[in-house]
Amino acid sequence: MNQEYFMARALAEAKQGDAPYGAVIVKDDEVVASAYNTVKRDSDPSAHAEINVIRRLTAKLQSPSLDGYTIYTTGEPCPMCATACVWTGISEIVYGASIEDLISLNQSQIEISCEEVIDKSFRKIKLTKGVLREECLKLFSVIN
Fold first, then answer.
1. Which residue from 70, 113, 73, 72 is spatially nearest to 90, judged by alpha carbons?
2. pLDDT tens per residue across span 104-134
3. Residue 88: burial class (beta carbons within 10 Å; 0-12, 13-18, 19+)
4. What is the C-alpha to C-alpha distance for residues 96 and 83, in angstroms, rounded to an integer?
5. Structure confidence by residue, pLDDT tens digits, 49-106
6. Residues 78, 102, 8, 77: what is their CA dihedral angle, to the nearest 10 degrees?
7. Is 111 exposed, middle or buried (0-12, 13-18, 19+ CB in 10 A)?
8. What is the dihedral of CA 40, 15, 82, 88, to 10 degrees?
9. C-alpha span between 59 and 94 (Å, rounded)
């Protein structure tokens, strides 16, 4: 499997949500959890795709640690989601559209990059940016 395959899975998740954010968590080349944005559906401002997938997997594992796992997400994790990745110890974050991309498409964002959050944290998390960026941007463009 490759990064494009897993991002395509995140894109498929995004199409099910309240907003075009989807996420999958991968370990050993296998998707172990997936989720999408349910902020409106759940009346929960924290129900971003990344938070939902982290909650789903940590509950399944009965552990708050996701060391050794990679998260793929259609949009760059916001500061809340990036911080959740730090707290879980996730090993890598892979995203499609950046926060700057999303702002340019009039998506509500806090203009603090995922990289900034990680740099100020106590963890070293690998970041891979722009995987299937154009496909991710198309999802966000449709809603504007």
1. 70
2. 998 889 999 999 999 999 999 999 999 999 9
3. buried
4. 18
5. 999 999 999 999 999 999 999 999 999 999 999 999 999 999 999 999 999 999 999 8
6. -10
7. exposed
8. 90
9. 22
Name residue 37's amino acid: N
Beta-bridge mates of residue 35: 23
Q: Which of 4, 50, 76, 135 is catalytic?
A: 50
Active site residue 50: yes
CA distance 108 to 88: 25
Q: What DSSP assignment string belongs to 8-75?
A: HHHHHHHTTSSSS-EEEEEETTEEEEEEE--HHHHT-TT--HHHHHHHHHHHHHTSS--TT-EEEEEE
Tokens 């075009």 sit at which residue?
A: 20
Residue located via tokens 């809603």: 143
Map tokens 């999958």 to a residue.
24
Task: Determine how many CB atoms are found less than 10 A away from the CB of residue 116.
Answer: 13
Coil, strand or helix at 126:
strand
* Total residue count of the chain as it appears in this document: 144
